[in-house]
Write a structure and sequence with these properties.
With 188 residues, this protein is of the alpha+beta class. Helix content is 53%, strand content 20%. The strands form three sheets. Strands 3-2-7 form a three-stranded antiparallel sheet. A two-stranded antiparallel sheet has the order 1-4. Helix 1 runs antiparallel to helix 2 and helix 2 crosses helix 4.
Length: 188
């Protein structure tokens, strides 16, 4: 049993590292191409603006592809430990508190390159905390699909920066759904 748990932990660690590196690769590729673009067109012009938007679209696509892969893996883990449908006696909680989780998530969201025009963005992130405390399969509901994707990516970036305590039903840890409201402020 210990070997199975150790293998599951190693797989989870390797997979979450792979998820993060997918996002880092997309960031690096975007920055490299943007630098080359700015070297070729040092002064702003229509062509540079158009090409920069295409780079932005490529980054968004890369993030969404990485999120799709991560979601498939998370769904396999959820299928093995599905969330309870009944009311739990104790809700899942972040070890440092909900406010600390929200703060970590806010700090991990990087939307500077998007030129996002809203000062605040309201959304809700829903995910599963399984009976072992793994936070899985984020789903953000907000008004902008691209912003939602980057919030979901931020979720994966902070997964190892704290631990979730699973929900309990009659003293026994159970898998459950968690929903956290978000209000993000963007300064220009």
């Amino acid at each position: 049993m210990k070997k199975v748990l150790a293998s599951a932990f190693i797989f989870t660690f390797i997979f979450s590292s792979a998820q993060i590196s997918e996002f880092q690769r997309a960031d690096s590729r975007y920055e490299r191409k943007k630098t080359a673009l700015y070297n070729k067109y040092p002064k702003p012009n229509d062509l540079r603006t158009k090409k920069e938007w295409l780079l932005t679209e490529d980054k968004i696509t890369a993030y969404k592809t990485a999120l799709d892969k991560a979601s498939l893996e998370d769904q396999k883990m959820i299928a093995a430990d599905p969330p309870t449908k009944t009311k739990v006696s104790k809700e899942a909680e972040y070890d440092k508190g909900k406010t600390a989780f929200q703060k970590l998530l806010y700090e991990a969201v990087d939307l500077d390159f998007l030129n996002f025009s809203s000062e605040t963005y309201k959304a809700t992130i829903s995910f599963v905390v399984d009976s072992k405390g793994n936070a899985l399969n984020p789903n953000v509901k907000g008004n902008n699909e691209d912003v939602n994707a980057f919030i979901e990516a931020a979720f994966y970036r902070i997964k190892d920066k704290g631990k979730w305590k699973p929900a309990e039903d009659k003293g026994k840890p159970v898998s459950s759904n968690v929903s956290v409201p978000l209000t993000m402020s963007f300064k220009k």
